[in-house]
């Protein structure tokens, strides 16, 4: 047998410890595998002897040690045979061997991809092929998110052992969340990684790769919290419009103002062209298919947008790189005097943290979309009409998204005929 075969324990958030067997063979090649046994406490494990301490506090200590003795003999023999057949055997082959010897049904022996293989394949395949849900390849931003999530998941596996479909449990969920919080990630960032993992689990389930439905439970939810993101009110948008700016900054400002009066995502308002304009009954309309939802949108142009269109010879402003727009917006916001203090509170590493920013420091292309939704709501536009443009699926999510205060909502309600 090449390499080493050792037992170790993995501390669980419950206070218990699972017993794992680890096979290391060559640089960077390691397979961690659960033996299916656990200890009531990590202190019941003897690291030097790699066995359970013979104490009364741990039930069946003798039986567990006998099982481990038998397992290491079987695995050593199996690895020797594997090495004889193929000196350059892979982690996948070791996993199949461990599955076979432990009596687990191996999903890899019948060419079913493992969870990691499915994750890799999903990203690679849907980079160029239409996703079954959206009917189009994954967007650049979505791909970037999935790749980051996959790398974090792989890092978790390196430190905690193999995770396959059958290993997905509420215990895994709690351990994975704890691991992510240990990275000092915010709740919303953690939620994004849980959401991406659930997407892969749902996809692999639909393909018949497994029948584990733990990830569909309500408790297997992505953590999230409302972060006080900013928006610009109507007066502030008018301040931006009046600014005298250099050409480059002016283009960024004008693109932002179009987003703030249409509700379009930056991926849409930053690709508008003359072909997207329609002039009907003395008014301009934008007609565009949403890049994210594939829905065809028809949006009337606000008077401020019509001024911008005339400025660019009856055409929207030229396209500009998102990063350059975001950089310019902070400079423009400072020129506009948006220097109010804004306190942002978020949970990082499981702890609430607050940080103070100047409002202009928080300006981004997404502020435009949030400004549209909030200002349109305050102006009395029906939520369902705003949602048709914004793409929010439920009113609950929409009301969490907009930044109207309780007083602003109350004033809007007060204008309803019911109260007059």
What does this entry show, briefly?
The chain contains 15 helices and ten strands.
H and E order: EEEEEHHHHHHHHHEEEHHEEHHHH
Strand content: 5-15%
Tally of distinct domains: 3
- Net shape: elongated
Q: Tell me the name of the CATH homologous superfamily of the largest domain.
A: Intergrase catalytic core
Structural class: alpha+beta
CATH topology of the largest domain: hpI Integrase, Chain A
Distance between the termini: 85 Å
Helical percentage = 40-55%
CATH class of the largest domain: Mainly Alpha
Tell me the major beta sheet.
3 strands, antiparallel
How many beta-strand elements? 10
Mean pLDDT rating: 87
Number of helices: 15
Rg of Cα set: 28 Å
Q: Would you identify the regions where 5 or more consecutive residues have pLDDT less than 50?
A: 105-109
Q: In terms of quaternary structure, what is this? A: single chain
Would you mind describing this structure in some detail?
It is a single chain. With 420 residues, the chain is of the alpha+beta class. It folds into three domains: 1-106, no CATH class; 110-224, Orthogonal Bundle (DNA polymerase, domain 1); 234-419, Intergrase catalytic core (hpI Integrase, Chain A), CATH 1.10.443. Helix content is 46%, strand content 15%. The chain contains 15 helices and ten strands. The chain has helices spanning 61-85, 91-102, 115-125, 140-160, 170-182, 187-206, 234-242, 247-262, 266-269, 303-311, 322-335, 365-378, 383-390, 395-401, 406-414, and strands at 4-11, 17-24, 30-39, 45-46, 51-52, 277-280, 283-289, 296-300, 341-348, 351-358. Strands 1-2-3 form a three-stranded antiparallel beta sheet. Helix 1 crosses helix 2. It is elongated. Residues 105-109 have low confidence and may be disordered.
């Amino acid at each position: 047998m090449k390499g080493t075969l050792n037992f170790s324990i993995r501390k669980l958030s419950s206070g218990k410890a699972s017993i794992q067997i680890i096979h290391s063979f060559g640089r960077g090649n390691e397979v961690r595998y659960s033996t299916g046994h656990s200890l009531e406490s990590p202190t019941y494990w003897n690291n030097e002897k790699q066995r359970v301490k013979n104490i009364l506090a741990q039930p069946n200590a003798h039986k567990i040690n006998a099982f481990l003795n038998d397992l290491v003999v079987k695995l050593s023999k199996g690895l020797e045979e594997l090495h004889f057949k193929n000196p350059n055997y892979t982690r996948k082959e070791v996993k199949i061997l461990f599955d076979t010897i432990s009596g687990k049904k191996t999903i890899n022996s019948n060419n079913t991809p493992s969870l990691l293989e499915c994750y890799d394949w999903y990203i690679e395949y849907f980079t160029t092929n239409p996703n079954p849900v959206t009917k189009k390849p994954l967007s650049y931003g979505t791909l970037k998110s999935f790749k980051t999530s996959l790398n974090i998941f792989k890092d978790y596996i390196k430190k905690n052992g193999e995770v396959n479909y059958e290993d997905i449990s509420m215990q895994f969920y709690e351990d994975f969340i704890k691991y992510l919080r240990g990275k000092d990630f915010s709740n919303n960032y953690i939620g994004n990684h849980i959401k991406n993992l659930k997407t892969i689990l749902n996809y692999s389930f639909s393909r018949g790769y497994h029948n584990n439905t733990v990830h569909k439970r309500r408790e297997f939810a992505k953590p999230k919290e409302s972060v006080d993101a900013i928006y610009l009110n109507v007066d502030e948008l008018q301040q931006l419009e009046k600014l005298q700016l250099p050409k480059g900054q002016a283009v960024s400002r004008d693109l932002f103002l179009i987003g703030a009066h249409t509700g379009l995502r930056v991926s849409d308002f930053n690709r508008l062209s003359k072909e997207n304009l329609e002039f009907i009954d003395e008014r301009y309309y934008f007609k565009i298919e949403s890049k994210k939802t594939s829905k065809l949108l028809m949006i009337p142009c606000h008077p401020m947008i019509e001024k911008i269109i005339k400025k660019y010879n009856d055409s929207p402003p030229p396209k500009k790189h998102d990063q350059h727009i975001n950089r310019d917006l902070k400079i423009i916001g400072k020129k506009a005097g948006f220097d109010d203090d804004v306190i942002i509170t978020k949970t990082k590493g499981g702890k609430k943290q607050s940080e103070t920013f100047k409002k202009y420091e928080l300006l981004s292309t997404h502020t435009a979309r949030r400004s549209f939704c909030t200002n349109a709501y305050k102006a009395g536009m029906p939520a369902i009409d705003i949602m048709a443009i914004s793409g929010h699926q439920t009113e609950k999510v929409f009301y969490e998204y907009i930044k109207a205060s309780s007083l602003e909502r109350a004033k809007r309600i007060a204008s309803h005929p019911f109260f007059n």
